[in-house]
Each structure stands twice: as C-alpha cells, then as structure tokens.
Design goal:
The chain has about 400 residues and is an alpha+beta fold. Helix content is about 40%, strand content about 20%.
C-alpha cells in the first residue's frame, strides 16, 4: 500500500471514529433530556433512545396543540389571563428560586423550609395522579391513527407486566392479538368518525401479558393474552404538525368481583347462553326461582330493544373468552324490567379424576384426548329498581 493510500485510510478511520463519538454524545444528551428516572437511562440502547425521544416529541406536540386551542378559546372569553395552574407553577418556581438564593446567602433554615414546601406540593400533585389511576382500575394509553403508542401511564406494569419504556413508540399491533387488529383499526379510523357519537370508542381487545394468573412473571415470548376493555375519545392537534390520536383507558376484565350483597347474582350458562345454574339471589332481584331458569336462554330475559347489546357481548365472549355486556334491560317476573350489566368469561370444566390408562404399545397410536367442555360464568349487577312494573314484555314474565 502506498503512503498516500495509507494516509487516506487513516484519515477515513479517524473521521469515522469522530462521527461515532459525535453520534454517541448526541444520543447521551438526548437520553439526559428524557423525563425518565436516572437509573433507567444507562440501560437504554440507541434504538430505544430514538424511539422514546420521538414518542415524547409527539406527545408534546399533541399537548401543545391542545393547550393552544384552549388558550385560543380563553382569549375569546377571558382575553390574555393566565390559567390557575400556570400561575401556581410560576409561583412555585419563584419560591424555589428564592429559596436557593437564601440558601446561597447563608439563610439555610428559610431555604430548607421553602424547598420543603415546594417538594410537598409536587408530591401532592403526584399523589393525586396515582390516586386517579388507582380509582381507574387500569392504565392510560395514547395511540396515533397509524397505531403507534406514543404514551402509556407507568402503572401498566401492575396489570400487564410490561413497562412504559418497553412499549412507548412501538406499534399497538405488535402487542395485540392478530384477530383483534381489524377492530382496533376500525376504532382508530377517522373516516368512520361521523358514525360515532362524539368520537367515543368502546371495545375489547387482547394484549400480551407477562404476568400469569399465579402472579409469576414470564418473558415476552411466553406471554399470554389479557382481555382489556378500552374506552376513549379522539384528540386532535390543531397547531403545528398535524397529529391525531385516540386516548384510551384500558381496564383488564376479571370475574374476581366482590358480590354486592343482594344487588348481584352469579350464573352458569352453556355456550349458547342457556342457564345451567343460578344462585338464590336472583329470586330477590328478578323474582325468578333458580330451578325455573334452567334451560332458559339469557336472550329470553333481555328487553327486545337491547338484544343487539347482548349479541355483541356474546360475540366478544366467543372470540375473546371474556366480555362486559354494557348496560341493558333485564325482564322481571310479573312485569317491568331492571337495568343491569353482566361480566362473563368462558371457563373449562374440570375433568373427573380417572385411573391412569395403561401405556399403549409403541406401535399403536396414543388415543387423542378430547378438549374439556366449556361453560360461561357470569356475574350480573342490578343497577336500578323495577321500571314499568305493570307492563308485560314477554310471556315468560307471567306468573
């Protein structure tokens, strides 16, 4: 190799190293700007830093556009007056700055007192956020119309085993059941907006969950599916880059409900929703005896105008294994109806224990075992008293 070629090779290697150092420094600076705990930042690789940065920029754009729209509306109504939260934030920042100045001047006691008050205010704000999430009984996710999850509340780990950092920036289709993708696309589609009242969404989807029913944590490849009830509405950024998102609250479905005294009853059904068991509470609520409901279809107890609600819930139950009916009217014996909501799940019946069969000869095929029979377990909540008690809507209501 000639000296000139060697010199060019060395210069090229030095330039490549300089580019890599500059790129690494930019990524380090970006990671320092991410609103994450300092303990998480060293664990982030380059793709994760870029993914999270893009997600936070997009959520910032959405919030800024929403704030600009609110400011524009306030200008029409109140002029240039600042909001109460902004004034409180500015007051707190001025107080902290004054505390630091007094600290620097040597007045340690006054500085400690004001910094402590400011920290207490911040803890109170964070405590309120945690309280809202606990009351919600689920987590919050913001999804773009393309399906990118640009924000998830950090309590998602309690329900799904996956962390906020692992999911932000990824497509929702990578973590949901393939059979649910069409329904998710329909709820993210803006062309169907006119058919939805106020842009509200309400549907069920299955999402990967790394927490087993026994509470153990498994890796993502061994993750199961957990049914989530998703309710949300459309959010549109009206300033800057165009960005449209859907804000969802996701609540995991579970049949581990606390029975609400006389206002709740449990029942078992065949897969076509015919009663196979019902507890005694139904008598005090709907005036039916449990034995006379055996073999009766749940559809026979539903108000005619609410059959579509029960049908949709039945379809979700058969396809996803769990469902929430939504509010519907259930007929009362003797006349009238009550408003109710039913939570249901498909359960496998345990097989009776049998003696272990003798091992077949290797040349003989092992007999295939049939799948265990299925039934539907339901918890029904009665939400109102009897309405229209003198009106008979079905022959089954006659005494």
């Amino acid at each position: 190799m000639t000296p000139e070629r060697e010199r060019r090779r060395i210069m090229s290697c030095e330039a490549a190293r300089a580019r890599r150092r500059a790129e690494s420094q930019v990524l380090i600076d970006m990671s320092q700007l991410l609103p994450l705990p300092s303990s998480l930042r060293p664990q982030l690789d380059k793709p994760s830093i870029i993914r999270l940065t893009i997600s936070y920029l997009r959520i910032h754009t959405l919030l800024s556009g929403f704030a600009d729209r609110q400011t524009w509306e306030r200008r029409d109504e109140e002029g240039e007056r600042e909001t109460r939260e902004e004034r409180e934030r500015e007051t707190r920042e001025r107080r902290e700055e004054g505390a630091r100045e007094r600290w620097a001047e040597g007045n340690k006691e006054a500085g400690d007192r004001e910094l402590g008050e400011s920290r207490e205010e911040r803890k109170k704000e964070m405590g309120e956020t945690d309280l809202y999430l606990r009351i919600l009984g689920g987590f919050v996710v913001v999804v773009t119309t393309e399906g990118d999850m640009i924000y998830l509340s950090d309590n998602i780990r309690e329900y799904m085993g996956l962390t906020q950092v692992e999911l932000m920036g990824h497509s929702i289709y990578d973590f949901t059941h393939p059979s649910d993708h069409k329904e998710i696309r329909d709820n993210l589609d803006l062309t169907a907006e006119r058919s939805r009242c106020g842009g509200l969404r309400d549907f069920l989807m299955r999402m990967k969950c790394t927490v087993t029913h026994r509470g153990r944590t498994v890796n993502l490849r061994s993750a199961g599916w957990r049914v989530l009830q998703c309710r949300g509405c459309l959010k549109v950024c009206v300033s800057g880059p165009s960005l449209t998102c859907v804000l969802f609250t996701c609540q995991p479905l579970s049949l581990t409900h606390t029975l609400l005294h006389t206002h709740t009853f449990t029942s078992h059904h065949s897969m076509d929703m015919r009663f196979t068991y019902c507890d005694q509470r139904v008598t005090g609520l709907l005036s039916y005896r449990p034995e006379e409901l055996l073999g009766v279809s749940m559809y026979d107890l539903c108000h005619t105008l609410d059959l579509h609600t029960l049908t949709k819930s039945h379809q979700n139950l058969c396809s996803k294994g769990q469902s929430v009916s939504g509010v519907y009217r259930v007929l009362v014996r003797g006349g009238g109806y009550m408003w109710a909501e039913t939570h249901s799940a498909v359960i496998s019946k345990p097989r009776p224990s049998q003696p272990h069969p003798s091992q077949p000869h290797p040349s003989q095929p092992h007999p295939s075992r049939p799948s265990p029979p299925l039934f539907v377990a339901c918890v029904t909540y009665i939400l109102s008293g009897v309405e229209e008690p003198t009106q008979l809507l079905s022959l089954g209501q006659m005494n």
